[in-house]
## 1
Amino acid sequence: MKHADLRRIGVIGPAGNMALEWELPRHLPLGFAINHSRVGRPGDALVTRESLLAMAEQVDRAALDLVRARPEVILYGCTSGSFVGGPGREAQIADRITEVTGIPAFTTSTAVLEALRAVAARSVFMVTPYPDDVNEHEIRFLEFHGFSLTGWDSFRCDAVRTISSIDSEETAAMVLRNRDAARRADAVFLSCTNLLTFDQIPRLEAALDRPVISSNQASLWAALQRVKAPPAGVGRLFSTPAMASGPSAPTPKAAS
């Protein structure tokens, strides 16, 4: 196979993110490749709303760097970085990428919404690595789009490096410590593209009898939908009818 024969997915990720580059390529269908570009943030990689918004300001350069690889679609692979702009604005960064490059784009937050709808979830139990001010933004984001929370828990990391040090077994253990709240939900959501989750999703789905959606899993699933590729991933999400029918449109609740 030659480079020219490969179909490509572009990913723009935070400079400190290592989980995306590890998990996504290992589950691509034959003939696909992922090309990455990175965006940094001020404040020594602190996890704050302000640093996440500042990171998004670099997206034009990162997107233009990817154009040379000629991807069919571009993912802005940061969950918190695509919802902290405010409920209903999670697609704005993707729109900007498309405007700059002419290539269809989407964000991880949009992918998560589509994935939760694909498994028919209306309530979720959520685990995040974020500090509480970012968690509050995510709760409002989910509620705006019609999802209720049966509970949530967090590692409350204030820096990217701290998130990177979380073992996937620690994430699974946090979910299982909240087993009752997780079972009351229609699905479990593991938020953050810098959390390793793929090796724990089958275990958690078996233990809880609930679909488990992670940021990286939803991002891969949504990317493969958009390029009409065969399903290749972990968890119940990849066996849903939506995998064959394409992405669903967001249905936020009406403004009051």
Note: The longest helix spans residues 132-144.
## 2
Amino acid sequence: MCTAFKRSKFVGLFIVLVLASMSARAFASEQPARIPDWLKAHVGEGNGQIAAAVLLRARALYLEKVAEGNVTNPCYFAMDATRPNKLSNGNTGARFYMICEAEQSFHAISAGHGSGRNLGGAANFSNGQQCAKNFGNALDSNLTAGGAYLTSEIKTSFKGYYRASPSQQAILTRSFVQFDGFGETANARQRKIGGHAAAKVSDICLQKKPESPYADNDGYVPFGKLVTYAGGRSDGCTSWSPSDAPLVLSMVKVNPTTLYIYPESRDINAVSQAVASGRSLARSGLYWNASCLKEIGAPKFWPKEKLEPIIAQFKKDHPAPPPRPLPICSNQSN
């Protein structure tokens, strides 16, 4: 009975994947390059809309990978990292897009950008929470790198216990979807770049809980405070709110798709040059979110060839202190 059920479930999943593949391939071969009429309503620079430049590139990447047979998912993703992370009313800005053209669905959600780092006199490539000024693809830079990606495997890891209510503890496990990049983003796996929920356990101490499946050899588990940072920055990964992350991850769990993140280095350099010369971006055929451009002045791209030696030298000059053991929680009834 169980064997028959498993076979039936496998056959059903196989049929779903085949139909999804046929749907995606048919879409790629039949749809013209122009933006479909229903999708045009979502094109613009207002909150919840996607800029035409971003959509056209994301769509072109998706069609290319479907035509190559690398993608069968009927949906694809895009992100506009030039948009503000927070709006004037304090809400998070929607700048990550999930587009399913076969069913004519479009969803825009929030996503964090890379925090960058301030290495003092060596280099300062840090970003504020509102708008990203610095971008790059260097190891240990904590910067967002725009360009083409494919989603890959998903790994779920235990992060710790936290207080869910005065009388109850909860466990935080966080799923991470790996991104594989192309060209300037080809080192995404080496950089451990992917997507996950913007949640972590901080201020950790060790709590005695030998009955826990996550306990160490001495019977301790990490315990701390749950922190969500949907409106904050990341280490270069794409972070979604804890409420949005499950939907994004479910869309690529068994069927990878494309993700296009804007801007690439060519866009950053072109916009920077236009700003320096006083040229209009629109007249130059360039795009950057106007409010963020006003805040940052001009963007900057830090290529790995330039930045990685600086980071390596900084590490050499400022070696990290030896790791300290986590403290035992002062109140074991936490």
Note: The chain has one domain: 40-317.
## 3
Amino acid sequence: MVDHASNFVPEDIVLGIPDGLLDTHIAVDIGTIGIAARMARRHDIPAHVAQISRLVIDLHREEDHPEVVPTTSDGHLIPGNIGADVEARLAQYHRPYHEALGRWLDAASPKLIVSLHSFTPKLESGGEDRPWEVGLLYNQDDRAARHAIRLFGEQGVTVGDNEPYSGKQFNATMNRHAEAHGRHYCAIEVRQDLVATRADQARWATMIADVAGRVALALD
């Protein structure tokens, strides 16, 4: 599943930001839709993909999270979201996405859920460079993540263990659809400069599919 796959903003929502920002990490997880599409087409891994920008509604936040409709992102003000009708956006976008995802998972009963995100090498608002090539995030259940961390490491990849973000704070979708149901999952963050091209996305799709398959077997 890909919570931040799209930078689409409906015509009736005016964010009040330069158009160019919609192509950056504040609006979309760069590279993730390409990875998910290749995993679906070439590796027969079904995908549940968001169709709305995280600047309209952040599907990877709880409904009561103060940033579910963000008014700032990485130092950029989102003026159109100040005073926005949060309830209307939850009803139109957030709830249908998660209700559909819940029904799909109930029907499919997957051995392993893969949640795809990507992260910028360095935040514009400051902080250190992020050296990790891929990160595995988890909250309470780290069973699948432990296997994935080892397997990515064996591929020579620099792996973040709950880095660059901690799943203890940022794990909303997996908390709801995986941990709450005892389902195994890998929440994977790939650094955006490594998945900027189709060739790079294809490479990572193959690697992630291989790791996910081996994790599922290890947990069986």
Note: The first helix runs from residue 32 to 43.
## 4
Amino acid sequence: MSSILTNNGAMVALQTLNSINKDLGNVQNAISTGKEVGNAKDNSAVWAISKVMESDVKGFKSISDSLALGESTVAVARQASETVADLMTEMKGKIVNAQESNVDRGKIQADITALTDQIASVIGAAQFNGLNLVSGSETVEVLSSLDRSSDGAVASSSISVNRQDLTMDAGVYNASGTDLSGNVTASDTAVVNTGITETLQLATSVAANDVLRLQIGDTSVAYTSADTDLNNAAAGLSAAINAAGIEGITATVATDTITLTSTVAFEDTDLTFTSTGATTGAYGTDAALEARAETVTFSGTAGVNEGDGYRVSIGSTDFDYVAGQGETMEDVAKGLKIAIDGAGLSDISTNVTQDANGAWQLQVDNAGASLAFAATGRSDGEATGGLAGLGDIDVTTDEGAAAALANIETFIDTAIDASAAFGSVEGRISIQSEFIGKLSDSLKSGIGSMVDANMEETSARLQALQVQQQLGVQSLSMANQAPQSILSLFR
């Protein structure tokens, strides 16, 4: 049936042409924007995912900037600490030269002072954008990542950069802080110059030509008996000990007994008696002469928190060291040694060692008048700088030169440890920065695979739709012309 009111063919052709034009519009939009999914209408689920990922990419760009800033800041600190280590190595060479008595120590001291000033200058200038990592003790956080969980929650991650305090600040001991006296013990209430004694009593019998031998540390002293009198043998061996000229060791004699006296400050001296005959030797307490120095023993089990301060009092003078971040009892002992040495007290010398249980000890020896001696500790102080006492090095005296040689090693180790710490964290930041760059590229690639148009496919699709459009127009034209044949029926 033909109708001049309803043209079904034209309606079908028009619908087809509209569909073709719509698809053609989508293809042209994809070509012009480069995206297959350009808005939520195109594909709401894919569009939503892509937008979340795009926000992450922008976040990672900011993180990359943060890492670059952090890496530069740490690099400056590392360079500064390495420079300080080099300068102190040079200073050590001058301190070694000062150990000789026939050099101009005044000129050497002037060089050491100049190097100290240069170190202070390096530390003060080692900042990037106002942040100095070789001064102070606060931890710096460098934003390193954004972590998105499966439920969509986002959390930030950071790389912690511990400051390495290379300043010469003395710190502040907090006398009202929590009592830490249980972590430190002084061996006596006074430090005196009295020699340490040990007795050796000869017994049993002695015969003529018996050889009596006493090993004193690394020195062996021998006496050949002239008769059978033990008292004469003791006197002869005592005289041989004094004649041996062992530094810090003297001997006196009583009936059959030798009294050994030691003023050796920091080392125990072992004693071993032997005889080629029947003579035996009995010690008063043990087979050793203990070191004369008094000791401050630090707990081998207690931890050290930032701000924990320890004080050693010698006479009327207090010497303090306040621990910084991550320090140990070894650092405390060495810090107190440096503080005492820097004061230049007459007749006072120090040493740091460990006891048989591994606990750190500060030894304090006095070659002069008796002085009061005590040790205590308090929390919540302001940390002492890692190079505190460097400016007090004085090689113009024998005692000062000897103390400087021991302490410069502590300073060098501090600078080396700081350099190593900065180098480690700088490497980590560099790795994270490289990873963030690759991650951003991967995210961009993933977003592209979801929303970007396949241009080869789109080009082919465009050509096909253009042909379909032409055919659709032709079909609609033919459908519209069909009713014209009805006119012939009315002629």
Note: Residues 171-191+294-384 form one domain.
